[in-house]
Design a protein that fits this description.
single chain, alpha/beta, Rossmann fold, seven-stranded mixed β-sheet, 4 helices
């Protein structure tokens, strides 16, 4: 499995990468978002929301205390932040299954908290802090469907190399 890797010199570029991902997502897609605190996972989700057509007037924030935020665009976006849970048992009272297995998009921060419940077929996004504002973003499709789609994204995201706020494609 080949992953795509992007360098983001700042927040504007991370938003652009997220926006492009949002434009490419399809009903039922699941994104697993990993990175340490402050890496930019919620910022990337904000870009994804804009790419899905969620209006700029709608604040896209971290659902750390509510666990799940829902945003309406061309597809529903379910933003899950599992940082405050210790394991899947704590999800019993939440509609998490509907968010993962519905017709919307699920973007999951701290997906390892789902344990065995995390679908094996998904898009993994890992954000690495490489400087004060610089990030490296890796995208990997797990499962045949996602691996093929992510491979096709390279050309569609490659034009970001020409954006003044972006550092373009790495390696």
């Amino acid at each position: 499995m080949k992953s795509l890797r992007f360098k983001s010199p700042g927040e504007d570029c991370t938003l652009l990468i997220g926006r492009r991902i949002g434009e490419l997502l399809e009903p039922g897609d699941i994104l697993s978002l990993r990175g340490e605190l402050g890496a930019g996972k919620t910022l990337l989700v904000r870009g994804i929301a804009r790419g899905l057509g969620v209006p700029e007037s709608v604040r896209v924030t971290s659902p750390t205390f509510t666990i799940i935020n829902e945003y309406a665009g061309r597809l529903l976006l379910f933003h899950l932040d599992l940082y405050r849970i210790s394991g899947p048992d704590e999800l019993e009272t939440l509609p998490w299954e509907e968010t993962l297995f519905g017709r919307g998009i699920a973007a999951i921060e701290w997906p390892e908290r789902l344990g065995r419940l995390l679908p094996s077929s998904r898009i993994d996004v890992k954000i690495y802090i490489t400087g004060e504002e610089c990030r490296s973003i890796s995208i990997l499709g797990r499962g045949k469907r996602y691996a093929e789609r992510v491979a096709q994204w390279a050309d569609k995201i490659a034009d970001l190399i020409n954006e003044p706020s972006c550092g373009g494609i790495e390696g």
